[in-house]
Structure formats: structure tokens, C-alpha cells
Amino acid sequence: MKNKLVDCFPIDCGCNDRAASCIYNDTKGYGVCQDCTENTAGDKCERCNNNFFRNPFTDPANNDTCVGCMCNDNGTVLGSVCNETDGSCACKANIQNLLCDECKDTFYNLTSLNPAGCQSCDCDPIGSLGSTNFCNKETGQCICKTNVEGNRCDMCMTGSYNLDTNNPDGCTLCSCSDGASLSGQCDAVTGTCTCRQNIAGRACNQTIPGFYVPKLDQLTLEAELASADRVSLQSVCLIPE
């Protein structure tokens, strides 16, 4: 039997110009492209390799260049790949953004060691501005009312007292009487100031029984017994004659 001569014609493999050759597959009925280039894959080099996506900066009509995914390893679900179309990553539960690179609101401290990615803020609603649980997404520092401090906004600032949810400033200023108190600080709970001798009252604005604060024309000074404290009109309480 003589062999029949058949005219052979070159056939385009349909590899989208990303492969030099193909091998015919009897089952599929077409040629499967070999060694796809430009980070592509598929029988016709028509899709991106895993962890690559179509470049959004090329012409939408010819958007066929694949670039590597840019997912944040700490915020991405382990073993996941990005979306081939837009490069969006599979974020952990408490992570947001296309690249999974930021904690969601009310969460902080993005780390690979956390299965959820970030931990919840722990703001004290009494001292936090607007009673919210918003905090710095890196440090966890909450947003405090004017007279409140601490990472959780749970302490009155120096010079104030009585952390109160109904106080728009969080804490009340000590308002210790100048000169009559040893400092402008007070007890953080009661607001009691530290008074000089013979002076009383929460703000050091009263004298103890048996003493009074003299007027200028009532003050008698023994110069040889004088000291800084005893000549201060604001800090001296005298026994009436």
C-alpha cells in the first residue's frame, strides 16, 4: 500500500503569542500550548499564573500582561492566592484593603502570629471620645477626652479627677487654690488637694476652725522669725487675738 501524500499547512496554535509551540491533544481536539511566557498559563496561555493578576495599568482593550500579586503576608489567609482580575487578596478576618495591609477600624497590631490578623482595641468607653472603640491601628492608643490619658483612656490626667462618662472632658480639673495647696495636683478619685498647714477643704480654700486668713492691714510680721511660707499672704493662717 502506497502512502498517501497529504499537503500540510502550518496551523496557529492559538497561544496568544505567548508560546512558540503546542502539542495536539486528541481528547481535547486542539493543540495545547507549551512553555507559556509573560507569567501566563492555560492551554492557550490565556490566564495568569497563580499569584499573578492582569496588570490594571495597561489598555483595558488589551489587558493581557500579568504582574505578581502584592498581598501583605501578615494580613493574608495562609495558602491563598490573589484574584486574577484585580489582584485583590484574601484577607484575614480583621484585615481590610486590596492588599490586606491594614487593620479594620477598632482593631490594631497587624501581625502574622494572629490568626485574625489584628486584635480588638480595648478603649474605656467612659474616657474615650464619643465612647467609641477607635484606636491607633499600630499602637492601640485610644482617642481620649480632653482631661483623660492612658492607652485605654482610663485615667484622669495630672491635675484632674473623677473620670465620668457624662463629663464631655472626661475628668474635672482639680482647681486647687493657688498658694494654699502644695501643688496643683489632687486625688484622682476624690479631687482632694494637698493643703498647707491650717488650711482645709477639697480645693484648699478653707481654714480649719480657730484660724483665719488676715487682710493686708491685719498682717503683723516679726521679721526675725520670717520665712518664705510665713510671709505669703496666700498661705498664712493666723490665730485671732
Shape: rod-shaped
User: What is the percent of helical residues?
Assistant: under 10%
Uncertain regions spanning at least 5 consecutive residues:
1-9, 228-241
Structure summary, number of beta strands: 18
| Oligomeric state of the chains in view | single chain
Assign the structural class, choosing from mainly alpha, mainly beta, alpha/beta, alpha+beta, or little secondary structure: mainly beta
Rg value = 39 Å
Strand order of the largest sheet: 1-2
Indicate the mean pLDDT.
84
Largest sheet: 2 strands, antiparallel
Task: Give the termini distance in whole angstroms.
Answer: 148 Å
Number of helices: 0
Order of helices and strands: EEEEEEEEEEEEEEEEEE
SS strand fraction: 15-25%
Question: How would you describe the overall organization of this protein?
Answer:
The protein is mostly beta strands and 241 residues long. Helices cover 0% and strands 20% of the residues. The strands form nine sheets. Strands 1-2 form a two-stranded antiparallel ribbon. It has a two-stranded antiparallel sheet with strand order 3-4.
